[in-house]
Amino acid sequence: MADRYLLRVTAGPSYDPTSHKTVAVNSTSPSIIRSPLCDANISVRVQNYRGLPRHSPSTSSYFSNPPHTYDQYSIAFTFVPKRTISGESLVFGNDFDHSIRDRIPPGFNAALGIVKWAIDPGLDGDVYADKPYLYGNALSSINVLSVGPKIGEKGLDSVVSVEDRQEEEPVTEGGFEGGQELRENLNIPDNAAARQKWFLGGHDRLRNWQWEQGRIYKADFFNPYLDFNEQVEEEEARSSQPILPDGTKLTTEPDKTFEPQEDDVD
Questions:
Q1: Which of 40, 51, 217, 234 is the most exposed place for a label (fewest CB within 10 A)?
Q2: Are 2 and 233 in contact (CB under 8 A)?
């Protein structure tokens, strides 16, 4: 039954699906999102991908890099805020516009408790709500964070070169062009896991951080646990539209009734 369903990844500046466009999974060129809140370039990579657009690469050289050889997916993004955001205010996570109670597996609460204890104590949410959600503070939830320079109102297009747009190298923890100094001034650890733990150490650390207007940030969210091919297989007689971190939506659609859109064909 799995071949009856295809995975489509879309991204846009709001929850409104009419503002979304199909993301070219495993492409070397990121999807460009512009909104009143930020400019963002988003790259989605899925191991063993067999979804839309048709004839998409099944993998990415990203997964050949030693830190990511066991990962199943990556959502990497470069963004520039258009207004300064408090470190306490920006969250990262998942939410849905419909109930998923009937799809929550047995033992989920126990598993979530282990995750909160061992990985991210800052996670909070209600997966049994009519509109379920699970959020953590971005500073402690994002796997990898790199801080760049301030570019003011220029926008990403003016500073991101063609080479950067086609970069397959994963984001690395740290900073560049002045971003590392900013981290050092705030005593933020260089190591990704240590940075996540550091920001869980108290609200003062979150309050002292600002996602600055006009500054470049690079981030990557990934893990080896969620296999989207298995998720599609489990959708045998139903479809869903989960929203992943950063607003990216994943949908499953019956292949037999699928009508290609312009961005789904070569």
A1: 234
A2: yes
Q: What helix, strand, coil percent values describe the chain, rounded to 5?
A: 30, 25, 45
The answer to whether the pTM exceeds 0.85 is no
Look at residues 87, 79, 91, 77 and name the one whose alpha carbon lies nearest to residue 214. 79
pLDDT per residue as tens digits for the range 131-150:
998 899 999 999 999 999 99
Query: How far apart are alpha carbons 258 and 57 in whole angstroms?
Result: 20
The proportion of the chain whose per-residue pLDDT surpasses 70, expressed as a percent, equals 78
CA 110/CA 190 separation, integer angstroms: 32
pLDDT at 123 over 80: yes
Q: Which of 89, 76, 38, 56 is nearest to 169 (CA)?
A: 76
Any idea which of 119-133, 169-183, 248-262 has the lowest mean pLDDT?
Answer: 248-262
Contact 2, 35 (CB under 8 A): no
CA 206 to chain centre: 21
